[in-house]
Amino acid sequence: MAIAKTEASGGHQLLPEVLAFSSSLALDKALLLEDIVGSLAHVLMLAKQGIVPKEVAHSIREGLVSICEEARAGSLKLPEEEDIHMAVEAELSARIGAPAARLHTARSRNDQVSTDLRLHVRESTAEVLRHLSTLLEVLVSRMDAQGTLLLPSYTHRQRAQPVTLGFWLASHGAALARDVELFGFVLKQLRLCSLGAGAIAGTSLPIERAFSAALLGFEGPTHNAMDTVGERDFGMDYLYAASRLMLHLSRLCADVIDYTSLEFGFAVLDGEIACGSSMMPQKRNPDIFELIRGKSGRALGNLLSLMSTMKGLPAGYNRDLQEDRQALLETGPMLNSCLQVLGLAMPRLHFDAGRCKVALEDGYTQATDLAEALVKKGMAFREAYQAVGSLVRRCQEAGIFLSKATVEMAKTIHPAFDEETMKGLLPENSVMHKASLGSCSPEALWLQRQMLLDAAGLAQTLADEVVGLDVLYAKLKEVDL
Ligand code: ARG
Predict the structure, then answer these.
(1) Residue 222 needs a FRET pair 20 to 30 A away by CA distance; which of 89, 144, 409, 423 works?
(2) Are 63 and 100 in contact (CB under 8 A)?
(3) pLDDT (mean) for 206-223
């Protein structure tokens, strides 16, 4: 117990309560593979540099691999230690004896934990990108299947203008496409390796940081040891990206929750994704969408938690940093489960074209198109806007919706209204006649569809560029010593 103690630090005894209080092992057990992979790269570098003899490195590697294999078989019991790094070292020592004492040469837990976390966040980011790619493809296939269905759009949660289902899907997709870029940035922030920064000032031993960095799939070593051990920028960037993505998902979910309510009635949840009520037999609840919306709060909390931990820390390593663990380890699985379940749920959302059409006709969503039709005839926009406003008012007084307005009625308000302008009352014309880039017209939407597919492709490429932990482990297990 407590192998990181010397006579200078008060001997080997640590109050059990103090060990329990200060241990992060319960959480960072999840970093076992990262820790072992990092140690394998470190010991290979030490051997190459002649800092530890090859036989020692060989036996350290064998020991680390046996620990990892046992963990995979589910039979590993780690010793009670302060963290995963000490637990692995203590276990290694129990297995191979004296050679284990050379593993921690030219290394500190301060650079080790940063390395483990970088590996972990990188792996998680690749997984997020894979799920994002799939979800973008799901949105595009929904666009292809039912993209032309007409429904109202909303501003201030009041019916605004007619759009298509494809346009609504693409609007959420556009946010996800930006998230792909953001996670690409997170990967850039993760391109350097902390290993070899030591406790704070590097080491006097002749290590080669570029070598271990390359073994771990990084571009090179970090620039400044003092900065390296005390920063978690990569973690904050990752948590910000995760929060923003979760926030986007929560907004998509908010729409679905509304659309599947009886009040909107635009869509029905498939039985496979609808939850029931324990008391009300009629319920078909959108629980999964509410859960995703709820979890987005946790993602945001995790970002704030890490940022608050970092604020005001003096240079170099501070134990406060151990409090990064909860936020960094919890967010990835949560985010990935949300992405995965949405990928399953979106195709199981059945839109009701008839109900959506009724919502378009029962209202005044075509008013802007009518005004623009008058503008096309040469009228000043403000004049057209006033004329259509008066027509809407007239309809309201007559108790009819705009779709029921007649040319005769319109002409009493302004002589410029004619059969041609009144065609703007048809929701399909409203959509077809949009002429601007980024609009809901079929041509504009085609470009958006292409952009979403490009983003899906980029997400996949970025994910594929990350060397997975399993691949690293398999390589480092075999690489020549
Ligand atoms: N337990 C710490 C963590 O996991 C690493 C140890 C840092 N160094 C130290 N001297 N306590 O973040």
Answers:
(1) 89
(2) yes
(3) 98
For residue 306, what are the contacts with CB-CB under 8 A and spacing of at least 6? 232, 235, 236, 239, 324, 327, 328
The set of residues, in sequence order, having a beta carbon less than 8 Å from that of 320 and lying 6+ positions away, is: 309, 313
Alpha helix (H) residue ranges in 196-232: 209-215, 225-230
What sign has the CA pseudo-torsion 109, 111, 116, 117?
Answer: positive
| 58 noted as active-site residue | no
Environment class of 354 (CB within 10 Å of its CB; exposed 0-12, middle 13-18, buried 19+): exposed
Active-site residue, from 261, 277, 308, 350: 277
Strands (E), 270-418: 349-351
Write out the DSSP string of 118-179.
Answer: HHHHHHHHHHHHHHHHHHHHHHHHHHHHHTT-EEEEEETTEEEEEEEHHHHHHHHHHHHHHH
Look at strands 150-155 and 158-164 and give their pairing.
antiparallel
Cα 113 to middle of ligand 1, angstroms: 7
Mutation test of ligand 1: which of 3, 19, 319 has the most ligand atoms closer than 8 Å to its C-beta?
Answer: 319
Centre a 10 Å sphere on the Cβ of residue 293 and count the other Cβ atoms it contains.
Answer: 21
**Angle at alpha carbon of residue 473, lines to 468 and 479, rounded to 5°:** 120
Round to whole Å and give the CA distance between 225 and 399: 74
* 262-312 pLDDT per residue, tens: 999 999 999 999 888 888 888 889 999 999 999 999 999 999 999 999 999
110 within ligand 1 shell (Cβ under 6 A): yes
* CB 81 less than 6 A from any atom of ligand 1: no
**Atom 12 of ligand 1, nearest CA residue:** 322
**Residue 480 carries which side chain, given as an amino acid letter?**
D
Question: At what angle are helices 233-259 and 324-345 packed, to 10 degrees?
Answer: 30
Q: What is the pTM of this model?
A: 0.96
> What span, in angstroms and rounded, lies between the C-alpha atoms of 346 and 438?
23
**How far apart are the CA of 328 and the centre of ligand 1, in A?**
16
What are 153-203's pLDDT values in tens digits? 999 999 999 999 999 999 999 999 999 999 999 999 999 999 999 999 999
- Our answer to whether residue 277 is catalytic in this structure is yes
Cα–Cα dist 122/187, whole Å: 7
